């Protein structure tokens, strides 16, 4: 299991370099809010670790999503991560295909991460179970869940251990990796190890519990030591 930590600034990224993957995002713009290309590039220049970039909680706009994905890849992101903030299988298929093609045509080695939300029922968006086969079919690399509304409620409040194991196994069967996130806490790490996704993603945990605060280096080190 790898640890992905989401800093919002270059200063925070310097405190997150012990994570396995450094994930650049702009929390003010949403759960998977996109940052600026110059921030992604500057963070990429800080480290040899893989850098991930969130590109937004997207409405059904496949053209905009594809161009944004290519922009994040060109800025240096090794993982390009998009959230599906809409419903509809055909729409999701079109958007996932467009984003994956946009990245892979120019950067076949880069990873495409498709996220659906653990709180999809309250958001009325596509479920992670419906998203996963579409991500696998399009040739994306990682199927992810995160909370779409960041109100302190954790993914575990919407998907219990059984449902997260089901999601992880579905991805394994489809030949795609699994990432889990959404207000995860230190005390969840043992359960997460049992579920055994490929990646867990955190921000609030390493900000002292409040994702609007700053990433703290000692909490990143604590998370790294607990995960590995
Ligand atoms: O990709 C990971 C997310 O940034 C998780 O953020 P959070 O732990 O504050 O919910």
Automatic annotation (TrEMBL):
InterPro entries: 4HFCP_synth, 4HFCP_synth_arc, RibuloseP-bd_barrel. Signal peptide: none annotated. It is an enzyme of class 4 (lyase). Its EC number is 4.2.3.153. The active site is at 25 (schiff-base intermediate with substrate), 81 (proton acceptor). SUPFAM superfamilies: Ribulose-phoshate binding barrel. Pathway: Cofactor biosynthesis; methanofuran biosynthesis. Keywords: Lyase, Schiff base. GO terms for molecular function: carbon-carbon lyase activity. It catalyses: 2 D-glyceraldehyde 3-phosphate = 4-(hydroxymethyl)-2-furancarboxaldehyde phosphate + phosphate + 2 H2O. GO terms for biological process: methanofuran biosynthetic process. It holds the Pfam family 4HFCP_synth. Belongs to the MfnB family. Catalyzes the formation of 4-(hydroxymethyl)-2-furancarboxaldehyde phosphate (4-HFC-P) from two molecules of glyceraldehyde-3-P (GA-3-P). This is (5-formylfuran-3-yl)methyl phosphate synthase. It comes from Methanospirillum hungatei JF-1 (strain ATCC 27890 / DSM 864 / NBRC 100397 / JF-1).
């Amino acid at each position: 299991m790898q640890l992905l930590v989401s800093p919002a600034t270059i200063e925070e990224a310097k405190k997150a370099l012990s994570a396995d993957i450094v994930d650049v995002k702009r929390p003010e713009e949403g759960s998977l809010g996109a940052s600026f290309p110059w921030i992604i590039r500057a963070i990429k220049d800080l480290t040899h670790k893989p850098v991930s970039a969130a590109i937004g909680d997207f409405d059904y706009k496949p053209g905009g999503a594809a161009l944004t994905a290519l922009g994040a890849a060109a800025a240096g992101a090794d993982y390009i991560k998009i959230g599906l903030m809409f419903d509809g299988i055909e729409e999701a298929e079109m958007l996932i295909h467009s984003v994956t093609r946009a990245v892979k045509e120019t950067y076949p080695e880069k990873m495409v991460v498709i996220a659906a939300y653990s709180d999809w029922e309250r958001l009325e968006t596509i479920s992670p179970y419906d998203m996963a086969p579409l991500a696998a079919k399009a040739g994306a690399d990682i199927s992810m869940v995160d909370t779409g509304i960041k109100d302190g409620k954790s993914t575990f409040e919407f998907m219990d251990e059984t449902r997260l194991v089901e999601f992880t196994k579905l991805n394994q069967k489809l030949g795609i990796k699994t990432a889990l996130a959404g207000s995860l806490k230190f005390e969840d790490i043992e359960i997460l190890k049992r579920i055994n996704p490929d990646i867990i993603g955190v921000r609030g945990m390493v900000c002292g519990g409040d994702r609007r605060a700053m990433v703290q280096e000692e909490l990143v080190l604590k998370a790294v030591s607990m995960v590995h």
